[in-house]
Prior knowledge:
Blueprint: E1 4-7, H1 8-24, E2 29-31, E3 38-42, H2 46-56, E4 65-67, H3 71-77, H4 82-91, E5 96-101, H5 110-113, E6 118-122, H6 127-135, E7 139-140, H7 155-162, E8 168-171, E9 182-187, E10 190-195, H8 201-208, E11 212-213, E12 237-239, E13 250-253, E14 267-270, H9 277-293, E15 298-301, H10 310-321
Parallel strand pairs: 1-8, 4-6, 5-9, 10-11, 12-15, 13-14, 13-15
Antiparallel strand pairs: 2-3, 3-7, 4-7, 5-6, 9-10
Helix pairs in contact: 1-6
The protein binds threonylcarbamoyladenylate and magnesium ion.
Magnesium ion (MG) binds next to loops.
GO molecular function, one term: L-threonylcarbamoyladenylate synthase
Enzyme class: transferase
Keywords: ATP-binding, Cytoplasm, Nucleotide-binding, Nucleotidyltransferase, Transferase, tRNA processing
Amino acid sequence: MTAEIIDITTDREKALERACAVLADGFPVAIPTETVYGLAADATNPAAITRIYETKGRPRFNPLICHMSDLAMAERYAVFDPVSKKLAETFWPGPLTLILPLRPESGIHSLATAGLDTVGIRLPKGFAADLIRAYGKPLAAPSANTSGGVSPTSARHVADDLGDKLKLVIDGGAAPVGVESTILRVESGALRLLRPGGVAGEEIETATGLTVIRPEGPAAIIEAPGMLASHYAPGASVRLNADHVEPGEVLIRLGAVPVKGIEQAAAIFDLSPSGDLAEAAANLFDYLKRADATGATRIAVTHIPGHGLGEAINDRLARAAAPRK
Ligand code: TXA
Ligand code: MG
């Protein structure tokens, strides 16, 4: 099978129609979202959800985020406490996923939630929201990559990785945020951060007046298995907080920071010449893939500040650098 690729800048209506047809047949479709490309399937259809897990080679204990077109739709499937509601109103549509009690019998299949009594919900922007509206049912969608690999931020990334396993890839251009959604769970009025992502922790604290509680250590719990230690891994090994380059290494840096031995770098990728963390997040996965494509076996990455989107960038880099299983 070779995936059909439809570009929404020229064929948006056709993309919506074809995607709805493939979804209704029970197959996944790769779609653009503002964070990363998703592998979307009907969240109420067990055969379709099974195909997501098979296509990605994803462990089935790792639940999927269910994407909705609007808050009213989300409320049909999950129960919102007041803080979650406020977060939804502030950040949706956008890169925030809320873990909420699932409404039993609402129709979301237990394969999507891996049997949990909660469901991860988010409202994406743009084409993805239009597609869900047109299809009329929630779409379960993990990132559209082989499990454990780097998430795709372009249709090309998806086609290179999964093109021979998919019927349809929708091309919506480069994903503007570039890292996955922030995953948050409200527990007795406190905010637990399960995965840093496209909405910065500081923004969430400002909007709610509550403190965001960070996970205790890397991969302390497999509650949000984006927390599996080795994840987002390129083929090359990754060395963090580099202040020098060793022979043959590719360098990924943030602006023109001083780096010893830079002339030895096999290639240099600058996440953001001006040091802008949002721009760096948008480029991160593409540059990891490009660094890999040079054939180098090691990637050195300079220090990235931990504020704003830097928290999500550092989280993904730590996983990319974690020992492989
Ligand atoms: O930006 C994103 O979130 C992208 C786009 C496609 O929307 N999706 C994404 O999905 O990153 P995925 O499958 O790669 O990551 C979903 C994460 C996993 O770590 C999973 O464990 C967690 O969400 N998750 C889903 N449902 C959960 C639940 N009920 N409780 C705890 N964690 C949950
Ligand atoms: Mg993923």
